[in-house]
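protien #1 (seq + structre)
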Amino acid sequence: MALGGSKITDKPQTASRAGLRLALWLLLLAAALVFGIKTLKHRDVVETDILAMLPHLQQDALTSRALDSLESRLANESYLVLTGKDKAATIEAAKGMMAELASSPAFVSVRSGSELDPKEIYRLYFPARFNLLTESQRSLLENGKLDVLIKQAKIALYSAFGFANSELISEDPLLLFPALMQSFGKGHRLGEEGGILLGNSDGQTAAIIMAKGKDSVFSPKAQEAQISAINAAFTKVNLGKQLSLLKAGALFHALEATQSAKAEVSLIGSLSLAGVVVLVLLSFRSLMPLLMASLTLASAMVSASLFTILIFGKLHLLTLVFGTSLIGIAIDYSFHFYAERSGRDESASQTLSRILPALTLALATSVLAYLALGFTPFPGMQQVAAFCGGGLIGAYLTLYLAYPMLADSRIQAASAAITLASRFLTPFEAAGSKALVIGSLTVLLVCIPGLGQLDSRDDIRSLQQGSAALMAEEANVRTLLSGGVDNQFLLVRAESMQTLLARLEALAPVLAKAEKDQLLQSHVNFADYLPSQARQMADHNLQQQIYGHELGEILARLGLEPELEPDLRAKYQAGAQTPIEADAFFDTRLGANLKPLLLEPTANEANHPESTAREWGAMVLLGGIQNLPALNQAVATLPGVTLVDKVGDISKLMGEYRHTTLWLLVLALLIAFGVFALRHPWKLAAAMVAVPALAALLSLSLLGLLGSPLTLFHALALLLVFGIGVDYSLFFAKDENREHGHRVMLAVLLSASSTTLAFGLLALSNTPAIHYFGLTLALGIGFTLLLSPLIHTFKRKLK
């Protein structure tokens, strides 16, 4: 009677505890939903900037400022090219499109045409004409070839198409100033008409417009606003015309990436969910397991998203694409629960208490695997780690708190599914010790050819590649813009503004030769327009050959009045006191456009004169780079000049992380062996870590045979193969009897099937980084599924 009474008393107590757990779970879920709604309501939490996913480089202060300045200058700039057969109609359409875009709140500036305002340039440079020479003029005077300049002036004076007039001749008899103004446009292949930049694209007129977005192009809202404004403006100006629109800039890459990521999240998530539904229904033939599995997945996705937003403030779209694989992992808890519960006359709490130790250890190993990802200095993987780790914790809490009450209904035996699992496990049970050893050696031998063909690739361009159509369109625009602007640039540093200008001037002929040698197509150096004080003084001294004692003879040879001599000589002597100052230059429209290339010492540095960081800097933009190593070699010997290649630096860093991650995997295997050896015989512990180790080797071997390069994403995926593989080993190592082993096999089979499905779908992604990650995980989990039953056999042989 006492025993019976005890049972009766226990049931209300168990029900009460289950009710309290469910209440706690509902409270946590409600709090999470309230936090999520408030967060989504007050700020944009979706991030699409691929740069936000990249590792942070350790840069000195000046280089960091240069990179920030360049990114802010280029990030929101869009290039729009209207092309048409009718030149006048194309120019008219370009003006109309500029007006439409300028009236849109999505853009802060819309421009075309040259930054060179002739009147403004004249006011700045003409008073300083005695201090300014072109490279050609300077070279002639340095080599004593004044006669050549005189001959050139005669030709210009008496040419029917000459631009000289009496007023200009009286101020500049050798007409040096017009040649200087013409030199400012050197290297520009674009024309200008009606304030519109014009080029030629396949025989058609190309009108070029530059539009700067108000907000970051990596914001989905900004993308929608800007692309809508562009499309509406083009549609309006193209009525009745046959114009085409070419586009280039970060906006269009970001938009394509956003659309691709959204489509992949939807497709991969839907297919993964459909796969889970099919697996649950086929295995347990009941709606209750499906409802509980759906509840577990929903809780996992909510907790994953909010956990990530709580830590990082934003959730990257690529994290969501990676995170869809969470469906295949979080569902494991439901699979293990129902595989143990099906056909048994016991409460949900009893089933849970039996499997909870193994599930807790499995959660710990999986979270540790994700934690290893989180410790890599790679923001993208840190987000993925937080997302998946937070999701697994959410799924575990749902199992622990909600299942005792909600999943307490009896489930009929999944006899067909267990029979299938038994058939899968039978060959392993029949294997002997020698067969296991021979099998392991065979696996290692099979791996050797593939591992020998494995090659590495660490270029960050593998993160995201635009479509062929987008890349071709951008290439056309870059050709029109003489190469545009590349991500690499030259950083020139000095201790003063004048030293900086001198170093930029020393760099100019090197870059001119590089363009001639076709190492690059174009460059932007503000010292081409702002000579140093030393250069201006040197040019003034060179012009002594003109305005010195031979001035009278020069005027006579040109047929000019001798009365001009005193006034010209006086103006020349006064010119030494009127050099072009930096402040005056940067106050012009041209100077204001080039001012972002100058990096002045910050206020902080000014307060600490002893600081070595008190430096002046300047960026020289490069376009159409054809041979980066040769260009780097050409500028390497110049003082204070360095080539900044963020793409190359990050790629190098990713290679280092790849090596570190693979060594971290080896260390994780050794630590796992030590932990397992504390609770199991050392042979069994060795077998438990051998499963993920062999799965990793087989995956790498097959990748080599498939010709897939080894990247950081493959290495990071192998860390997760380790975490999941160890889970499977733990469950098989815990089985108490043959029947339990078959139930574990069912759970592992379902788990591996759903996980492989999820990651296999990731392998279909158009984004190479996601493809590599998903492919490696799908292969790793597949091999783990084939190898993990060996633990069941090995443990039985040890008994």
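ok now protien #2
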Amino acid sequence: MSERSGSTWVTSTSGALHNGTGDMYVTFGADQRSSGRPSFRRVADDQLAWLRRVLVAPPGMGNARLQLARAGTVILDGAPGSGRTSAARVLLREHHTDVGAFRELLPGEEGELPLTDPELVGAGDRLLLDMSAAEVERWAAARADLSALRKAVHEQHAHLVVVMPYGGILDSDLQQYRIEIQQPCRARVLRRHLRVHGVPSEHYLRPDATVTEFVNEQRPLREIADFADLVRRAREAAARDEGFAQWCTTAHKARADRREEVATLVATLGDSPQRALLITVAMLHGAHADVIHRAAQLLLDTVGLPPDDVPLLQRKDLAERLVEISAGVGPDGHVRFGELDHDSTVRAHFWDHMPDLRQYLGMWTARSMALNGPHITQELRDGLVAKLAGEYLRTRRPEGLASLAEAWGSTAASKAGLEAAVQALTCGLGDRVQARSFRGWIYQWCTGKQLKEQFAQVLVQVCADVVAAGHPDQAMLRLYYLARREHSTGSALHALSDLVETSHRLRRRLFHRLARSELSRADLGIFLRVGVAEALTDPYDNGRTLVEEESVQSSVTTCWRAVLNGLPRPTWQPYAERWMHAAADDGHEGDLLLELLVSAADRCEGRRGAAFAALYASARDAERTAPVGSSRAALTTDLLLQKICSAQRLSRPTTPPRAESTRGTEP
């Protein structure tokens, strides 16, 4: 298996998955958050499960397994193309449990804790530190922090796999964790991919000259994965009388450099309509002929060419025009080139040799997304955006794709336009080389710009469904900033709440961030939403709860004090009632919940009495709706009153004050 698998395998339509070159189809919709789809955590686990299916264990894998199981840490070394990063991910997948999550550590990026911070590691987490492409300075800094990181990993019963730079320096005290990964048998890698792609074994087990020549050449494993995917696609497009040898020949030919062939073809197409048709087929390869015709006309209109003045019945029909560009309409009515992967070469030619056309392709893509009809599918729209994004990423122009996504998301007048923005950012985040830039731009958008609400919704979806899949800390920070700024939809707050619901560690981080901030009214709303009592008393890590942690107690008390001081009682009353209900049902933890509320009220300088009275009145109100019954809830109210009296250094009154006596004293 390679460091970047060369095939595309979608195990669910719930999030972004891209394991190599080629098109990526991702369906996002405005209502998808409530569609019951698997969470981002499931998406990340599905990606790891796919890697495990296609991995051929490289030499050294067994030793790496033993090392990871024994010490909780392993450092993988190996030449580029040996499959070391895929091996690292599979090693972590093999330690999958219901506790903890898979995460890739990205030290130095916004939203990422330092490797030395104990809060970086949650109970049972599976952590990947991929430094395979790190420069000398970054690797030296990471090595210096590995001791503290390994200590936290050990304490949290987590697992850590580090991929070191090839030829990098490793300190003597870390040598015991180093395992070298070597490239596995290339023929076995190809057969494994073909098997997973559904190619029957009786085909690929036969000797084939094309396959033998291909696997005997020294090459990175990702190229073998790419070749296997081409064989799969050749099989799907082949005639019934073609066999494995023809599929492999077609796949091998698709790998050849056909740029001169395409350049010659373009030179023979002197008129604009034919070039527009060629571009359209390349961008919408496999679309229905009706869609190709409409989109080609739309491209001509986008670049400002006047309509054809030739009488309608004297014009060439579509079939004749397609023959001139080496394409045709199949029995299903869909248009394809005759050669496999010819569309990617055509796209690259126009992108590279007609740079002035690029801005028009962006405009045309946006207009094409708005087309409707029986043959306009979501897969077609997503594929169009993915192909355009692929050219930006191939030519290392990520800033152009980011700007295009921002423009689409800020000006889109339709759901399709917003989905295009989501898809464009998803493609950028899925690019191994340029994902870091896109995460940085998303952070800048979330924190430093006046966002139009519709683009803010794009960012919410991308953070919750894409960034969070492998980088939940970064997703949490970005959703936090979006939640602070939203006014009506509440989608960012909802997504943030869903995210911290998956991890006590993330909820703890959010509490600490809130407690250290100025606690605006928006911050208080975030706290009330994520600081629900049930989450604080939910056991984790061998029965521990968040409410028992001193640091959490301090942060929660600070936040509740700000709530009691800064918000009217009707705003926080429902949340306080939930605290009372949880306190009535949770024994020792319930007692701690009451202590935190009383401590928060006790710190309301100049308003202590009013805060205490409001809490008591809320407890009385909570008795009527307590799931455990009013009698048991009344005991909780009585305990709260005792704590209030103790805080005020008063003896407990023999007759508790009636709820009516608190009127006029509420904050």
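The beta strands are 73-77, 102-104, 126-130, 159-163, 178-180, 327-329, 335-337.
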